[in-house]
Amino acid sequence: MASCEQSFFVGGGPGGQHRNKTASGVRLAHPGTGLVATATERRSQAQNRAAALARLRVRLAALARERRPRRPTVRTRGSEERRLAAKKLAARKKAERRERG
């Protein structure tokens, strides 16, 4: 929270006069990563701040997680044989068309 830049704004929408007159919307920006999280669902600025902080933490955790390198799948012998048989069948059909025409 200390490294975030906070800004408050008037969040429109349902909620009545209280919500339309007060700056209860919260926008948290993390300057190191450029991530921004906003919250405007509640009429309370404190509740919106907590919601925005939770969203920002989730995004930062996702950004920090290292992805495992993908290992390519190995074709089974049966699947390779089926693939080659299908290719041979298609080639045979095309060859027959050439012979006729």
Explain what this protein looks like in three dimensions.
- By secondary structure, this protein is of the alpha+beta class.
- It has a domain at 5-64: Double Stranded RNA Binding Domain (2-Layer Sandwich), CATH 3.30.160.20.
- Helix content is 50%, strand content 16%.
- The protein has three helices and three strands, in the order E-H-E-E-H-H.
- It has helices spanning 16-21, 45-64, 77-100, and strands at 5-9, 25-30, 35-39.
- Strands 1-2-3 form a three-stranded antiparallel beta sheet.
- Strand 2 (25-30) and strand 3 form a beta hairpin.
- It is elongated.
Briefly summarize what is shown.
With 101 residues, the protein is α+β, with helices and mostly antiparallel strands. Helices cover 50% and strands 16% of the residues.
Q: What is the H/E order?
A: EHEEHH
- Output the strand order for the largest sheet: 1-2-3
Backbone shape = elongated
Kindly provide the radius of gyration, computed on alpha-carbon positions and rounded to a whole number of angstroms. 29 Å
Distance between the termini: 76 Å
Record the SSE blueprint:
Elements (H helix, E strand, L loop, with lengths): L4 E5 L6 H6 L3 E6 L4 E5 L5 H20 L12 H24 L1
Antiparallel strand pairs: 1-2, 2-3
Which characteristics define this entry?
101 residues; alpha+beta; Double Stranded RNA Binding Domain; three-stranded antiparallel β-sheet; 16% strand
